[in-house]
């Protein structure tokens, strides 16, 4: 273990804003120029390939909560300068339909002009069956409502105690919905409902895979599956305990967003392969007709054109930068405060053109230094060290004082300065 020499000196904490705007050229997951704060809650695609993204409630107040892209997600344009939060959306019959905290809306010209869809209460979800023109929305604390006449009249078809946040189904009038605590099912387009009682967990998400196969993701018991339209359920053996989002790609691989990252299975959940853990908090997954992967996170939209194998951030956007370390040959490290009040460690191997977020934490990181694969971070009260280029950290010194500066010399000695002027060797 290298010797740590702590020399006391006081430096002012400097914060500044930097924003990178770059073209996305890498064959990886890339952070787009779309919204970089707020939780991306939903995606949709028009028949012409136009992509849409909606944002729910955010830590900072945003004027724009609905975006669209006409170039496969390379750039995004804010469409709706209103304080509505968009929770869910679908595209059907040349209309984009959205569920918001102000009710249901639709647009026939890719989001440039909007009109009400007859439902003016708080809406968390929207679904429409392929076999008819019925639409469904999950209302705040009241249940599920349905319209069969293009929004002219809405009728409550299910009474619930909690908010219906997810509605999905197939083209055969099978509909599945959850209020986070229960899973509800209808086999007759919403005329009658029953509840599934053998899933002993809260439910984060539902995915209908076709041919009677349904998956539900839970916050602490992993993934459940049913092969008979939800009559019987089986808890799958998985290497993860929390499931945030579920989707299948064009190779029939099951893709899961979990607390540890992104996983995939080519045998309906019997075996799992870890894809990546670089990007965290993936709340929504979407695959376009061009096989472009989109992920909605708490810090913006990411995309991939190689089936999600790699994640690359094309710039640290709208982040307060606490420190930058440039003394490592061929690599730069940076620490930033994110808008969700976490701090993140970023690295760049091409002189800052592209950045990869390698670590994030609720602990405030102030300063960074590196030598070989060892990365050191100074916090409010201690010094942390990573021996794997920043993927994980352990405490190596407890100062009980703010670390104002940390550097490494050419021999690997680490020097740190603290606010309380104490020195430790």
What does this structure look like?
The two termini are 14 Å apart. A hairpin with a 2-residue loop joins strand 19 (205-210) and strand 20. The protein has strands at residues 16-18, 29-31, 40-45, 51-55, 66-69, 77-78, 86-92, 95-100, 103-107, 115-116, 123-128, 135-139, 143-147, 155-159, 166-169, 175-178, 183-186, 194-196, 205-210, 213-217, 223-226, 234-235, 243-248, 254-258, 261-265, 273-276, 282-287, 293-297, 300-304, 311-312, 319-325, 332-337, 343-348, 356-361, 365-371, 374-379, 382-386, 394-398, 403-408, 414-418. The protein is elongated and about 75 Å long. It is built from no helices and 40 strands. Helices cover 0% and strands 45% of the residues. Residues 1-27, 58-63 and 311-315 have low confidence and may be disordered. With 425 residues, the chain is mainly β. Strands 1-31-32-33-34 form a five-stranded antiparallel β-sheet, with no helix packed on it. It has a five-stranded mixed β-sheet with strand order 27-28-29-2-30, with no helix packed on it. A four-stranded antiparallel β-sheet has the order 3-4-5-6, with no helix packed on it.
Kindly list the characteristics that best describe this protein.
single chain, mainly beta, five-stranded mixed sheet, 0% helix
Structure, briefly:
With 425 residues, the protein is mostly beta strands.
């Amino acid at each position: 273990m290298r010797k740590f020499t702590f020399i006391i000196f006081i430096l002012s904490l400097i914060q500044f804003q930097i924003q990178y705007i770059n073209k996305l050229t890498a064959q990886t997951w890339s952070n787009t120029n779309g919204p970089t704060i707020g939780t991306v809650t939903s995606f949709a695609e028009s028949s012409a390939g136009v992509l849409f993204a909606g944002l729910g409630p955010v830590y900072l107040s945003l004027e724009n909560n609905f975006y669209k892209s006409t170039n496969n997600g390379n750039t995004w344009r804010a469409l709706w300068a209103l304080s509505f939060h968009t929770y869910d959306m679908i595209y059907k019959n040349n209309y984009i339909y959205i569920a918001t905290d102000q009710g249901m809306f639709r647009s026939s010209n890719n989001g440039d002009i909007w009109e009400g869809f007859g439902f003016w209460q708080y809406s968390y979800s929207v679904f429409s069956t392929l076999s008819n023109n019925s639409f469904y929305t999950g209302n705040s604390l009241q249940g599920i409502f349905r319209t069969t006449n293009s929004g002219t009249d809405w009728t409550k078809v299910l009474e619930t105690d909690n908010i219906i946040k997810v509605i999905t189904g197939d083209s055969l009038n099978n509909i599945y919905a959850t209020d986070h605590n229960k899973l509800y099912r209808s086999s007759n387009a919403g005329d009658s409902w029953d509840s599934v009682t053998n899933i002993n967990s809260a439910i984060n998400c539902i995915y209908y895979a076709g041919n009677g196969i349904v998956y539900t993701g839970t916050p602490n018991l992993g993934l459940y599956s049913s092969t008979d339209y939800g009559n019987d359920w089986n808890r799958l053996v998985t290497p993860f305990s929390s499931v945030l989002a579920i989707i299948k790609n064009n190779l029939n691989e099951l893709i899961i967003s979990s607390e540890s990252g992104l996983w995939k299975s080519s045998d309906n959940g019997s075996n799992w392969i870890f894809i990546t853990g670089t990007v965290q908090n993936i709340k929504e997954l979407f695959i376009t007709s061009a096989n472009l992967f989109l992920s909605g996170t708490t810090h913006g939209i990411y995309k991939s054109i190689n089936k999600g194998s790699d994640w690359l951030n094309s710039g640290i956007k709208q982040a307060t930068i606490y420190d930058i370390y440039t003394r490592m040959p061929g690599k730069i490290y940076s620490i930033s405060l994110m808008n969700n009040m976490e701090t993140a460690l970023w690295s760049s191997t091409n002189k800052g053109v592209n950045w990869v977020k390698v670590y994030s934490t609720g602990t405030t990181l102030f300063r960074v230094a590196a030598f070989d694969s060892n990365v050191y971070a100074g916090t409010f009260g201690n010094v942390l060290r990573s021996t794997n280029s920043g993927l994980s950290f352990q405490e190596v010194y407890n100062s009980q004082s703010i670390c104002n500066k940390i550097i490494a010399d050419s021999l690997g000695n680490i020097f740190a300065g603290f606010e309380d002027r104490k020195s430790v060797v």
